[in-house]
Amino acid sequence: MAAVTAAESVPATQREEPVRGTQSRWGRSVQTEAWGSGEGPQMTGFTWQEPTDDAAVETAEEAKEPAEADITELCRDMFSKMATYLTGELTATSEDYKLLENMNKLTSLKYLEMKDIAVNISRNLKDLNQKYAELQPYLDQINVIEEQVAALEQAAYKLDAYSKKLEAKYKKLEKR
Fold first, then answer.
1. How far are the Cα atoms of 20, 27, 32, 55, 56 from residue 35, in angstroms, in the given order?
2. How many structural domains comprise the chain?
3. Residue 172, exposed/middle/buried by CB under 10 A (0-12, 13-18, 19+)?
4. Residues of the domain holding 43
5. Residue 121: its pLDDT value, please?
6. Greater pLDDT, 59 or 135
7. Does 120 reside within a domain?
8. Where do Polar residues bias regions lie (predicted)?
């Protein structure tokens, strides 16, 4: 495969060594070379070549500066793509803000529902406390009656114990 290299198209007095080269992973050599004094635009060349036994042979193809119309078209294309990219980014950001707004609205509605539930619970608790206060005198009476029943029960046990003693004495006296 014969290719004209950038080094061959430049007179020998103006040639400089290539700046860099890379090896591709598909078995082809990709050479990127730059010639020039370092000032102004640099010429770069790219060549694909099949691997050879002679590693010292390097080929490159001279790159030409694009015409002014090509540069203008490339700039228009770049600005068009940049505008599309920025529009997409702004649209995504706008959608994120809309999503956050919807989430905030839903959260606000949930908190309003929870507030209504809490108000209902509070109202029901007040009603229960009021009913408990109304029942309190009756509960106090029940407690008094319970104490009286307990005292009456103790008296009944004492009476039963006394009656058993009397019965035992009576039986003892009868046997005599």
1. 11, 26, 10, 21, 18
2. 1
3. exposed
4. 6-65
5. 98
6. 135
7. no
8. 21-34
Within a domain: residue 75? no
Look at residue 148 and tell me if it is in a domain. no
Q: Are 45 and 31 in contact (CB under 8 A)?
A: yes
Cα separation, 117 vs 126, in Å, equals 14
Taking only the tens place, the pLDDT of each residue in 4-44 is 444 444 454 454 444 444 444 444 444 444 444 444 444 44
Does residue 13 belong to any structural domain of this protein? yes
d(Cα 81, Cα 64) in Å, to the nearest integer?
25
| Three-state secondary structure call for residue 34 | strand
* Cα first-last separation, the chain: 150
Mark 152-167 as b/e (b = at least 16 C-beta within 10 Å): eeeeeeeeeeeeeeee
Question: 């006394």: which residue's tokens?
Answer: 162
Residue with tokens 């920025």: 86
Residues 168/169/172/173 CA torsion (nearest 10 deg)? -150
CA–CA separation, 86 vs 78, rounded Å? 12
User: What number of other Cβ atoms are within 10 A of residue 46's Cβ?
Assistant: 12
Task: Classify residue 9 by burial, with Cβ atoms within 10 Å: 0-12, 13-18, 19+.
Answer: middle
- Pick from 66, 24, 64, 65: nearest CA to 48: 24
Which pLDDT value is given to residue 27? 46
Distance CA 8, CA 20 (A): 17
